[in-house]
Specification:
With 143 residues, the chain is α/β, with parallel strands linked by helices. It has two helices and eight strands, in the order βαββββαβββ. This is VOC domain-containing protein.
Length: 143
């Protein structure tokens, strides 16, 4: 098919929401709500799944716990270990403080210490309690 045969999707929300399936909701909630400071919006039930929703800027981060445990787990080995969605990026004001909080929590691991990718832009990688990789970005000139 030719590209001109398709219409562009008309987005009604200019951000992407993210859903993470977990069987470890207590530690995941502690990490995202208490360590990262994301506001917990609500907890809802739909069929055989419980959903805890957090505000992440203009986006929603949703933690899903199914009544029946999933048959498999996510691939391990870092962001280059397999195809598919492998990490999420969160921009922060104080990378050093955030990494200190992650270490102090005892439920998150720092995978890669901060390094400068371009002038004034620093990144670091952390895993949450389930081993999901998060890239944290600090831009020194961010307003």
């Amino acid at each position: 098919m030719e590209a001109e045969e398709f219409m562009a999707a008309a987005l009604s929300k200019p951000v992407v929401d993210l859903g993470i399936v977990t069987m470890n909701i207590d530690e995941m909630t502690c990490f995202y709500r208490d360590v990262l400071g994301l506001p917990e919006l609500d907890r809802i039930r739909m069929g055989g799944v419980s959903i805890t929703r957090f505000q992440l800027g203009d986006a929603l981060l949703k933690m899903l716990v199914y009544d029946t445990a999933p048959a498999s787990t996510a691939a391990v080995g870092g962001i280059g270990a397999s195809t598919g969605i492998r990490y999420l990026t969160i921009s922060v004001d104080d990378l050093a403080e955030l990494l200190a909080d992650c270490r102090e929590s005892g439920i998150a691991s720092v995978l890669k210490e901060p390094f400068e990718v371009e002038s004034g832009t620093w990144i670091a990688f952390v895993t949450d309690p389930d081993g999901n990789t998060i890239e944290f970005v600090q831009r020194d000139d961010a307003a």
